């Protein structure tokens, strides 16, 4: 089992032993330059328990979700389709499409989906494609503007 460790803005991470809950805060700046996932073998100094931890370097918390929605890509031709939002954060989302679409990095799309909050809030966002997984069905995007916080703010705090 891998434990997720969050890194703060000062590049400090607090490791919590899953066995005895002893904490240790460490400077992890030397790991921040890596582009790939960083896993660290840890040993608790209190109980000698060994565990694997990985550093979560995202700026904003990601919430796992499962929302259906739609996208429209307005490039040379209009391409529309359905999507499933898999995770959501203050800065972007990851979604899956039911059939492979030839999204290009930096493409701009408009998306719509409904939150599972009490109000069933409709979210409309313009997004920019950041990454496409090799399978072609999973897409990582960021919002083109962080100024419009709509109902996402309260939703992400719950």
Number of helices: 1
What about the largest sheet?
6 strands, antiparallel, barrel
CATH class of the largest domain reads Mainly Beta
Strand content range: over 45%
The residue ranges in which pLDDT falls below 50 over 5 or more consecutive positions are none
What is the spatial order of strands in the main beta sheet?
A: 6-7-8-11-10-9
Annotated CATH architecture of the largest domain: Beta Barrel
Q: Alpha-carbon distance between the termini?
A: 26 Å
Overall radius of gyration: 19 Å
* Category by helix and strand content: mainly beta
Shape: elongated
CATH superfamily heading of the largest domain: predicted glycosyltransferase like domains
How many structural domains does the protein architecture include? 2
Predict the CATH topology of the largest domain. Thrombin, subunit H
The counted number of beta strands is: 11
Mean pLDDT comes to: 88
Q: Helix proportion of residues, in percent?
A: under 10%
SSE order? EEEEEEEEEEEH
Would you give an account of this structure?
The chain is mainly beta. The chain has two domains: 2-56, no CATH class; 63-157, Thrombin, subunit H, CATH 2.40.10.220. It is built from one helix and eleven strands, in the order βββββββββββα. The chain has one helix at 152-157, and strands spanning 2-6, 12-16, 23-27, 39-43, 50-56, 63-74, 78-88, 92-96, 108-114, 122-132, 138-143. The chain has a six-stranded antiparallel β-barrel. Strands 1-5-4 form a three-stranded mixed beta sheet, with no helix packed on it. The two termini are 26 Å apart. The mean pLDDT is 88.
């Amino acid at each position: 089992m891998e434990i997720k460790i969050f890194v703060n803005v000062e590049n400090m991470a607090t490791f919590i032993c899953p066995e005895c809950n002893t904490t240790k805060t460490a400077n992890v700046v030397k790991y921040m330059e890596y582009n790939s996932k960083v896993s660290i073998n840890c040993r608790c100094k209190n109980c000698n328990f060994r565990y694997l931890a990985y550093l979560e370097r995202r700026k904003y918390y990601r919430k796992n979700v499962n929302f259906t929605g739609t996208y429209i890509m307005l490039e040379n031709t209009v391409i529309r389709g359905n999507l499933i939002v898999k995770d959501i954060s203050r800065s972007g989302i990851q979604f899956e499409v039911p059939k492979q679409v030839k999204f290009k990095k930096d493409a701009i799309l408009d998306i719509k989906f409904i939150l599972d909050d009490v109000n069933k809030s409709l979210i409309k966002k313009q997004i920019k494609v950041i990454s496409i997984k090799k399978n072609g069905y999973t897409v990582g995007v960021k919002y083109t503007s962080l100024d419009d916080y709509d109902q996402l703010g309260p939703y992400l705090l719950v």
